[in-house]
Amino acid sequence: MKYSHLSQLEIGYIAGLIDSKGCFGVSRKKPGGGKSGNTLDWNIHFGSTNREIIIWLTEEKGVFDNFYIGGKTKTGKDFYVAYLNSKESCKEFLETFLPFLRIKREVASVMLELIKLYNPKRGKRYELSPKEVCLYEKIRRLNSNKGGRKK
Predict the structure, then answer these.
(1) From CA 71, how far away is CA 77, in angstroms rounded?
(2) Burial code of 46-57, b = ≥16 C-beta within 10 A, e = fewer?
(3) Domain limits, the chain
(4) Could you tell me which residues come within 8 angstroms of residue 119 by beta carbon, excluding any fewer than 6 positions away?
């Protein structure tokens, strides 16, 4: 298991970081590219101006696959983004960290449910089921609120 080397304390600490500055996303694309199709792309990311915490999460602890500079803040600081973007990586992350999340627990829980339901190997003409569409839209709705909280 990817996260078996982490202590319960580290998992709790990282979950707190994710509750604060993390995001759980899913987007739809057409099989040949484009938007609003029936193929889902997954991502979990964490952003910070603190490069050391990003290095700790990616290179030292292996929580995220990689990171990039996502731009600059208004004050000119680099803004770093650590991320996971495969279905399998996101599933394992969610199964490990979900019990420790508080603020983003609902959106993470819905994402995990969708990941478990979604099967992209059903063919090129595969249509998302009504349940998959409902979960996808719920994630989008939760993400449109601050921190995944209901308004």
Answers:
(1) 8
(2) bbbeeeebbebb
(3) 8-144
(4) none
> What tokens were used for 19?
């509750």
CA distance 136 to 125: 19
Cβ atoms of 88 and 46 within 8 Å: the answer is no
Which amino acid type is present at position 97?
F
Average pLDDT of the residues in 1-8: 92
Q: What is the pLDDT of residues 32-44, one digit of tens each?
A: 555 556 778 899 9
Element (H, E) at 109: helix 105-117
The CATH number of 8-144 is 3.10.28.10
Instruction: Give strand ranges (E) for the chain.
Output: 22-29, 39-48, 66-72, 78-84
